[in-house]
């Protein structure tokens, strides 16, 4: 009995002491910023060697229950140097974190389900933060906001219209016939960045759908929602994405909720936009009118001067509007230990420099993270967007009388084209189109409704002190419903001249993308002297469906604006269904943060390949060596010296329909039938495959006050898919198959520095330098002018030729084909600066330099034909008129120096905010900014960044009467509470 009684007492004693022992393991503290003493919220606090952790609250306070003592606490947060503190017992442990200029603790995505600290990264992956993206000035679209902020990324505007239109090239051209725009992923959802033709070409006489001045649909993503952007520029980094990664990958992460009290941010921008570089009128005199057009035109010139005192400046009348820009954004973020959320909404309304042009976007986003249990948690991202644009009529056409640039090239400024008192517009005596009539009565617009939904479920399958195994299931949906509408009245001069007698095109276009993936991830943490491993295995699936229907009508009934009221009606439909499936695996080893190596492999099949069931392999391998982490390193002034090398392969399947020979419908004598089209498919076509080797080093000096990143890459793209001519006896005209290889190589350099970092003055600066060189290394057909990428060798075009750059411009001069230019720059540089004075005034600017590269300026070809070029009164202009009208005459240097962005902000001191608003309001900031402030260039047209062919394919560097670029000025007001 005594023994039993003693046992009961012992059990009771243990039960009493055990909770006390548990309480005794509690550690609390406050985390502050070294130097200033400001609290640092949302810092990760981890008990080293375990998965036990906590996060500091909004005031920098944290509490953690230790599993044992002694222990080591690891404090880490983006933008700060990681700190480790030994803890021998329970109590209070405060931490003071040093800011990290290089953000070496920043986490960068290295696989479809894993990430790595930047200091251990083996590739040159560029990251753009929310502050860099939209913290300086107003931005219409994500791609436009990236200008000059990333090495190795060449961005060209394909239109100055509101709503953008940009061509992004990561490390050069990746395909000749295929897509050169990178794969874009937002919160795990594969995003459609399509350019949607409206049918405008059938009214204007343009040659191709890519000449219709369409925007690419990345414009639907609100830059205000973005937390950061990672850019995988080459195949060595993007290999894990397989046959969708040939042109690189852009990974966009939107803002998430944070534990703590709910914070609300409000932003209001108001701005104006004006034409950046008006060309002006030719300085006409009576004598020059007589010499050019004769005495009859001189009499009209005299009459106009007598009546008005000046000529009509139609460039200013059409392009001279002052557009008003407003953007309102409101967001809230908060949460607790179970659930965190981010909710953001914005509305942007941007008028253009042409009357009745503009772009508006309404966006609402909800991001939720929820912890179901210790085993399950999920994230949900939901984004609804409604955007509208009116882009009017610019770009190429064949005498349709609609494109302003064409019309103005031939319009003489002494002719009155304004409507009379009854609203009737006179005919233009010089060209089949009155630009004022087009501006005021014709319509070219689109509307987009878009839903982007992502969902991820994380399941922790196994956890111990050094191992964590989890299963990640994720899926994404991108649904886009687009409507286009083009209308030209039946009494428009160009419609009468062409016999079309009114035109209307109504487009209904639907795009659905679904992607899913399942990933098993095993993390083995490194113990003392051990090797840390991160392993992932998984599968991916992507389906893309599109259905484009365009109903076109001509010969409209008087005053009617819909297809049903037209005499001639036709329907164009394009339907596609593409499916990709893949397996992938990757292993990353980390030995003491000294040597970090990665091996990976991806197997993909696609319905667009010749054999849709055949898998193609895409390997990757990389290694990074942090010399500064070895025992022998004793150079205190160099705190980081990393050597890195990487190799990877990616692919790109053939375009939809290239693998089979299609049948075209025909109608003979009222009977429907089918006949062979001119294009023969190749059932054995292989995907284009890029292999890239990258080598470089990263260095950090003076505790990362100065950072240097240098990279060399060599990228070879094999089995390029081209079209070749066939003998007429075959029954076909062309065949599409694998016919060529090309190579890109380049250098990327970036230097960043905290030049001054004192209490009252901070100055951060950065310089970026990058160049790319391309060459066609194999061509199994005779050299040829690339279809759809120019206007023939008479005026100049992209020309595919073995041993030459893929970006060369070739024209026929004196009967011979000559390389007359190359649109690729010699190099590009960017110089960005950010200064803070007295902790309240922020000043920043971004200067960009593009050296070399040529454009083919066919706008000047047209104004020379019309005798309206502004320089024709000069000897140089007259000399040019005496030269043959070939490509050599119209190729111009397209280099420039541009002040891309500049801003100054004032942040009210905390004491002032508290006195005015009380403790409810945290920060109040207001400022002024501008975009495209000035450009120094020898290029004679509106902007050296230009593309008549949109953003796909070989597109940049050819100009035909574009929508002029604009200069924007903003006032900003931001408040958080």
TrEMBL record:
Chief place of localization: membrane
Q: Name one Pfam family in it.
A: Plug
Q: How does it sit in the membrane?
A: Multi-pass membrane protein
GO biological process terms, semicolon-separated: siderophore transmembrane transport
Keyword check for Phosphoprotein, yes or no: no
What are the protein's UniProt keywords?
Answer: Cell outer membrane, Membrane, Receptor, Signal, TonB box, Transmembrane, Transmembrane beta strand, Transport
Query: Which subcellular locations apply to this protein?
Result: Cell outer membrane
Signal: present as a keyword of the record?
Answer: yes
Q: Sorted alphabetically, which PANTHER family does this protein's record hold?
A: HEMOGLOBIN AND HEMOGLOBIN-HAPTOGLOBIN-BINDING PROTEIN 1-RELATED, TONB-DEPENDENT OUTER MEMBRANE RECEPTOR
Family stated for the protein in its record: Belongs to the TonB-dependent receptor family.
> What is the name of the protein in this document?
Putative outer membrane protein
């Amino acid at each position: 009995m005594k023994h039993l009684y003693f046992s009961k007492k012992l059990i009771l004693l243990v039960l009493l002491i055990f909770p006390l022992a548990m309480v005794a393991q509690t550690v609390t503290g406050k985390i502050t910023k070294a130097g200033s003493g400001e609290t640092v919220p949302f810092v990760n606090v981890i008990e080293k060697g375990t998965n036990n952790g906590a996060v500091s609250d909004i005031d920098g306070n944290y509490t953690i229950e230790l599993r044992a003592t002694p222990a080591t606490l690891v404090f880490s947060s983006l933008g700060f140097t990681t700190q480790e503190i030994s803890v021998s017992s329970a109590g209070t442990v405060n931490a003071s974190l040093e800011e990290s200029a290089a953000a070496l603790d920043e986490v960068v995505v290295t696989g479809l389900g894993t990430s790595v600290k930047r200091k251990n990264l083996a590739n040159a992956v560029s990251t753009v933060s929310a502050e860099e993206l939209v913290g300086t000035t107003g931005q219409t679209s994500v791609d436009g906001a990236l200008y000059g902020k990333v090495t190795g990324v060449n961005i060209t505007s394909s239109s100055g219209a509101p709503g953008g239109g940009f061509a992004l090239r990561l490390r050069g051209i990746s395909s000749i016939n295929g897509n050169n725009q990178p794969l874009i992923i937002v919160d795990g959802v594969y995003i459609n960045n399509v350019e949607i033709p409206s049918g405008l070409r059938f009214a204007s006489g343009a040659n191709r759908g890519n000449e219709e001045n369409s925007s690419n649909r990345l414009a639907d993503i609100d830059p205000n929602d973005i937390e950061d952007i990672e850019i995988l520029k080459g195949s060595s980094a993007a290999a894990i994405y397989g046959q969708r990664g040939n042109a690189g990958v852009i990974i966009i992460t939107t803002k998430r909720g944070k534990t703590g009290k709910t914070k609300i941010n409000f932003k209001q921008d108001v701005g104006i936009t004006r034409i950046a570089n008006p060309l002006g009128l030719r300085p006409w005199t009576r004598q020059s009118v007589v010499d050019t057009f004769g005495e009859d035109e001189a009499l009209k010139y005299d009459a106009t001067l007598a009546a008005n005192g000046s000529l009509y400046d139609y460039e200013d009348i059409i392009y001279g509007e002052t557009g008003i820009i407003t953007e309102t954004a409101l967001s809230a973020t908060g949460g607790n230990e179970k659930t965190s959320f981010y909710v953001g909404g914005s509305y942007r309304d941007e008028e253009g420099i042409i009357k009745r042009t503009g772009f508006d976007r309404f966006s609402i986003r909800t991001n939720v993270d929820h912890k179901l249990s210790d085993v399950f948690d999920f994230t949900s991202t939901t984004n609804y967007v409604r955007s509208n644009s009116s882009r009017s009529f610019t770009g190429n056409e064949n005498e349709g009388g609609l494109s302003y640039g064409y019309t103005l090239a031939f319009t003489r400024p002494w002719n009155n084209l304004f409507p009379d008192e009854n609203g009737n517009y006179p005919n233009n005596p010089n060209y089949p189109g009155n630009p004022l009539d087009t501006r005021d009565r014709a319509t070219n617009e689109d509307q987009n409704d878009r839903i982007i939904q992502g969902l991820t479920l994380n399941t922790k399958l196994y956890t111990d002190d050094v191992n964590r195994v989890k299963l990640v299931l994720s899926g994404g949906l991108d649904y886009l419903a687009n409507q286009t509408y083009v209308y030209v009245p039946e009494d428009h001069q160009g419609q009468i001249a062409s016999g079309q007698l009114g035109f209307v095109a109504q487009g209904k276009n639907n795009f659905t993308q679904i992607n899913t993936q399942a990933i098993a991830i095993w993390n083995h943490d490194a113990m003392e002297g051990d090797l840390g491993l991160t392993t992932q295995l998984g599968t991916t699936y992507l389906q893309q469906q599109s259905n484009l229907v365009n109903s076109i009508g001509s010969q409209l009934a008087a005053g009617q604006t819909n297809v049903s009221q037209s005499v001639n009606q036709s329907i164009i439909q394009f339907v596609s269904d593409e499916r990709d499936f893949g397996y992938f695996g990757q292993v990353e080893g980390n030995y003491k943060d000294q040597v970090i190596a990665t091996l990976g492999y991806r197997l993909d099949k696609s319905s667009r390949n010749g054999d849709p069931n055949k898998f193609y392999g895409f390997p990757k391998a990389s290694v990074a060596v942090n010399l500064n982490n070895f025992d022998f390193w004793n150079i205190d002034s160099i705190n980081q010296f990393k050597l890195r090398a990487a190799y990877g392969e990616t692919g790109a399947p053939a375009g939809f329909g290239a693998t089979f020979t299609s049948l075209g419908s025909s109608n003979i004598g009222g009977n429907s039938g089918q006949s062979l089209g001119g294009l023969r498919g190749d059932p054995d076509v292989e995907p284009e495959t890029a292999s890239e080797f990258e080598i470089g080093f990263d260095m950090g000096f003076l505790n990362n006050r100065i950072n240097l990143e240098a990279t060399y890459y060599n990228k070879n793209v094999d089995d390029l898919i081209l079209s070749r001519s066939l003998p007429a006896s075959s029954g076909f005209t062309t065949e599409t198959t694998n016919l060529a290889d090309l190579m890109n190589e380049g250098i990327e350099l970036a230097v960043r520095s905290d030049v001054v970092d004192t209490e009252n003055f901070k100055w951060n600066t950065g310089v970026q330098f990058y160049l790319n060189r391309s060459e066609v290394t194999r061509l199994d057909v005779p050299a040829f002018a690339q279809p759809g990428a120019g206007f023939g060798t008479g005026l100049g075009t992209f020309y595919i030729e073995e041993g030459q750059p893929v970006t060369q411009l070739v024209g026929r001069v004196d009967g011979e084909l000559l390389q007359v230019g190359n649109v690729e720059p010699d190099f590009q540089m960017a110089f960005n600066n950010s200064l803070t004075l007295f902790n309240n005034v922020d000043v920043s600017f971004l200067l960009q330099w593009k050296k070399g590269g040529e454009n083919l300026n066919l706008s000047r070809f047209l104004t020379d034909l019309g005798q309206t070029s502004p320089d024709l009164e000069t000897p140089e202009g007259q000399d040019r008129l005496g030269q043959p009208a070939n490509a050599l005459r119209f190729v111009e240097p397209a280099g420039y120096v541009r002040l891309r962005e500049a801003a100054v902000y004032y942040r009210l001191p905390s004491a002032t905010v508290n006195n005015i608003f009380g403790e409810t309001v945290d920060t109040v900031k207001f400022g002024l900014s501008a975009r495209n402030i000035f450009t120094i260039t020898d290029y004679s047209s509106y902007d050296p960044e230009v593309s008549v062919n949109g953003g796909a394919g070989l597109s940049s560097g050819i100009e035909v009467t574009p929508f002029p670029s604009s200069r924007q000025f903003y006032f900003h007001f931001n408040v958080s509470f």
